[in-house]
Amino acid sequence: MSSHAVEANADGLIGPTHSYAGLSPGNLASSLNKGEASSPRAAVLQGIDKMKRLADLGLPQFVLPPHERPSIPFLRSLGFAGTDAQVLERAWKDAPSFAAAACSASPMWAANAATVTPSADSQDGRVHFTPANLVTNLHRSLEHEQTQRALNALFPDASHFAVHPALSPVSHLADEGAANHVRLCADHGSEGVNLFVWGREAFEAWDGPFPARQTREACEAIMRRHTASNVVLARQGRAAIAGGTFHNDVVCVGALDTLFFHELAFEDLEATKAAIRAAAKGFEPKFVEVSAADLPLADAISSYLFNSMLIQIPGEDRLTLICPTETRDNPRSHAVAERIATSNGPIGRVEYVDVRQSMANGGGPACLRLRVVLTDEELAATNAAMRMTDELHARLTMWALRWYREELRPADLADPALLEESRGALDELTSILHLGNDFYPFQR
């Protein structure tokens, strides 16, 4: 039975320490821009404006708060002592790589926040969330506890929502969240197909040039936890990982009955398509494939064509693809995008958004958002203060202009004044989003 449901987006609000520290091996943009000056203010405003654009299109849009950075509790756990400013200073002096990890604004990429199973696909009729443990990268492994707090704040009603803790933080259960999960369905409220994409098996000897960040066993554990139905497990293409596809959402995106992907996305493409068809109930999946001849993998990654948001705008029959401006600026990806939109297929048009500050660190429009399918009743049970409105957009814009620096270089992360600025910003944000006065470690 199908109930009315919509696909909401929860975007990560970009934090005051947004910088280009090059902390993510295999993420080519992150490595390429290491050491460059970033603009936290431009970054957060780009993110806020993107959220407003989705809300204006009629889609429910929520804000996930940034994490406290620098993470002083993490540095204290490494034995650094004294005042918070002294801890930061000593960590940068004696363990700069750990200090850099403690300052990362990477929670902005909410596609890695969690894996989500809608109530239509779970046996107990609740929406299930498992925050990703993100163990492959040190700086991201620090996120899952605070992410769990944020999800509990946004989805507080236990009769509708189940927010689980992350899987054990071990490489055998390496989990990168929704960046490796796609849901296909006839409509959002009906039972869908849950496509989990994994890069390696837990006990497999991995010899690729870049890490395979998701294990099959992590997918299986989440599937069991969430009592998810109609699951398809597919192996990520080895060639894609070797080429810099650190998450499946760099080469694949899906919405409703449509899967849009690069031909190298899956190790066994035909078997994956057959499994999806077999699992689909009440609909025939539509596959929109782009060949390596039309778009070489390197162009797919640099342009982030597939790290776009594939959405259904209310009142429109065909899907809209929201791409980063980098897709438009690359002649090959631009040609592919425009051809798809004019080919009378399931994707009817392409729009472009400026998220250049995020893109320079290797995160496109799809990286910034966590998709959550919600029924009308579930939508009413969310924290309304975290939902994007004209008023919230105005308040967040003023907040960002007040607290965020125009320019930040990696060396500036050691500045104790930045610690105080960040805490001031987050302290004010907790009241704006109704998060309570004990949401962050420094408030406790």
Overview of the structural elements:
By secondary structure, the chain is of the alpha/beta class. It has one domain (5-69, 104-443): 5-stranded Propeller (L-arginine/glycine Amidinotransferase, Chain A). It contains 17 helices and 15 strands. The protein has helices spanning 28-32, 40-56, 72-77, 84-94, 96-103, 138-141, 144-154, 216-225, 238-242, 269-279, 297-303, 325-329, 331-341, 356-359, 376-380, 390-403, 416-432, and strands spanning 5-12, 61-64, 114-117, 127-131, 161-163, 181-184, 193-198, 231-235, 252-255, 258-262, 286-290, 309-311, 319-324, 347-353, 369-375. The chain has a three-stranded mixed β-sheet, with helices on both faces. Strands 3-4-5 form a three-stranded mixed β-sheet. Strand 10 (258-262), helix 10 (269-279) and strand 11 (286-290) form a beta-alpha-beta unit. Helix 2 (40-56) packs antiparallel against helix 16 (390-403), helix 4 crosses helix 5 (96-103) and helix 16 (390-403) runs antiparallel to helix 17. The chain is globular. The model has no long low-confidence stretch (mean pLDDT 94).
Q: In brief, what are we looking at here?
A:
By secondary structure, the protein is an alpha/beta fold.
